[in-house]
Amino acid sequence: MTMTIPTGSRIFHTPPRWRQDLVALPDEPASGVDSWEPTPVNVTRTTPALRDLFELFASSLDPVTELDRVRFVHSADGDATDFVAFSQASVTFIQLKESSSVVGAFSDVIQTFERLQVELGVTQRDLFRATGIKHRTFHSWAKKSTDSRPRLSSVGQLWLLADAVDDLRESVEGSVNKWIHAKPDRLEMLRAGRFDDLVNAAVVGSRAGSLSAARSTYTGLAPDVELPVVKSDDRPASVKVRQSARP
Amino acid sequence: MTTNISESAPFDGPLGGLPPADRRLLRYAPLEVAIIEVKFTSPAKEIAADVAAHIRDALNTATEVDYTSIQPATTGTVQVNFEIQGSSWAEQNHGWQISSSDGSRSVTLFPDSLIVQTTEYSHWSVSIRTPLSVLLQELASTIKPSLIHRIGLRYVDRFVDPDCKTVSDWGGKIEASLLGPVGNSIFGTMVQGAQQQIELAVDNRHGAILRHGPAQDASTKSINYLLDLDVFAHATTPFGVDDVLGTANNLNRTSLSLFQACVSSDYFTTLQGEENRL
């Protein structure tokens, strides 16, 4: 079950003229204290009392003004976001609005199907063949009530495939997708629903390769970025205090 | 905030010359949420679904927490423009959010950042360090980050005491220098609320943002006190799993030292569950 959490309100106000000149945002944040970004918080996962406190402090200390850039995080199926204000206004929080739909057994099955499709890098048609799920049945699941469950026979070999993919992940080097597509007979085994044969092939292959020499990979620095040299300094910590601006 | 026994590290103490903190566990810990974020550069444009699934499985094994949900997530920037009544979008990144079954723990992954958040914090090593270590090792072997740009560790404490009916009741509990106007001899008792942000330059590579202040709690008809402590490393360094974990360790020790500097010694003893109570 997911819940829709309303996004926090914000105080939007027109900045004074002098500030409007300053908020023509540069592409990169300014250096120094003004560019410090707070660590983001997903407030939907906190208690209501704490959310209220975040909101209180944000409204006082982080008003979003025109032309401010804000950073957002949202779920792919969500229809609302909330903001982490950038640079000029201090960072406040990340809020992920949960989907308003109720998650039920049908959506579990659909999500599993789609996840497997992505992980295996195959078409829907390939997966229908592999699992024995009928095309029409699959598309009817999206319209089903969340209180009901799909009949076991209609799900075919979907769960067997999910288990097989779990085994493949443990047995193959790199992604399952690449391994499946590396040889045509593996894709054929998948389409034919011969999951045990597929897993056996992966296990046999992993044993044969287990004696290969270790490899080292140079990670190094990005070629276009210089590593800054920061000299240590024994200055004591300094303090800057910012008070909230009352209207 | 809770504490734990120190782990081995080249330097295992607070930064900036701050005093070492008492690491005994707090029986009455006011901590509500803890978050760590690591921002980095990597050649990857996205994180594949199988990588996210593999990371989820690794987290389940290492933490013994049941991470059941993997949800696609997007992050980016938007510029607010009232005149055109719209906004312009830029820099969208796609990733995943992996959550525990009860939603108390979550991991958010993007090609340029990771965030670990928990509302069930017990010990540093268990609640943050272990999942962070898993994530760093997995990312090192898959998307291979090259540079670290920021590591931030944030502890948000909400002090709740039903006996604190006014802001001034927090005197003797919260450090006097933070209470500020509450101590004013003329209007101190009239203070109803205050929100303050303090920015600390711990040293050249580390900073801290402290937000604090009292607020009404309608449910208990009392005054709560918020202590939101965000300590971070903001210098760019090469990526290394042990280096990131070492820095995170230092941030934890620094947070602890700052936390203890924000409460009175008597109240800290109370939070530890000692017999002396105010």
Report the structural category of chain A.
Answer: mainly alpha
* Strand order within the widest beta sheet of chain A: 1-2
Proportion of residues in β-strands of chain B: 35-45%
Average per-residue pLDDT of chain A, rounded, comes to: 64
End-to-end separation of chain A in angstroms reads: 42 Å
**Rg of chain B, alpha carbons:** 20 Å
Helix content of chain A: 25-40%
Oligomer: heterodimer
Work out the helix count of chain A.
Answer: 10
Q: Which two chains form the greatest contact, residue counts included?
A: A-B, 72 and 79 residues
How much of the sequence of chain A is in beta strands? 5-15%
Largest sheet of chain A: 2 strands, parallel
Helix content of chain B: 10-25%
List low-pLDDT spans of chain B: 2-7
The assigned structural class of chain B equals: alpha+beta
State the helix count of chain B: 5
Walk me through the structure.
The complex is a heterodimer of chains A (247) and B (278). By secondary structure, chain A is mainly alpha-helical. Chain A contains 10 helices and 5 strands, in the order βααβββααααααααβ. The radius of gyration of chain A is 26 Å and the shape is elongated. The N terminus and C terminus of chain A are likely disordered. By secondary structure, chain B is α+β, with helices and mostly antiparallel strands. Helices cover 24% and strands 35% of the residues of chain B. Chain B is built from 5 helices and 10 strands; from the N terminus they run E-H-E-E-E-E-H-E-H-E-E-E-E-H-H. In chain B, strands 1, 2, 3, 4, 5, 6, 7, 8, 9 and 10 form a 10-stranded antiparallel β-sheet that branches. In chain B, strand 7 and strand 8 form a beta hairpin. The N terminus of chain B is likely disordered. The interface between A and B is large, with 72 and 79 residues.
Topology:
The complex is a heterodimer of chains A (247) and B (278).
Chain A: E1 12-13, H1 17-22, H2 48-61, E2 64-65, E3 69-75, E4 82-85, H3 105-120, H4 124-131, H5 135-141, H6 152-155, H7 158-171, H8 176-182, H9 184-191, H10 195-208, E5 238-243
Parallel strand pairs in A: 1-2
Antiparallel strand pairs in A: 3-4
Helix pairs in contact in A: 3-7, 7-10, 8-9
Chain B: E1 31-41, H1 49-63, E2 67-81, E3 86-100, E4 105-110, E5 113-118, H2 124-142, E6 147-159, H3 176-179, E7 196-201, E8 206-217, E9 222-233, E10 237-238, H4 241-262, H5 265-272
Antiparallel strand pairs in B: 1-5, 1-6, 2-3, 3-4, 4-5, 6-9, 6-10, 7-8, 8-9
Helix pairs in contact in B: 1-2, 2-4
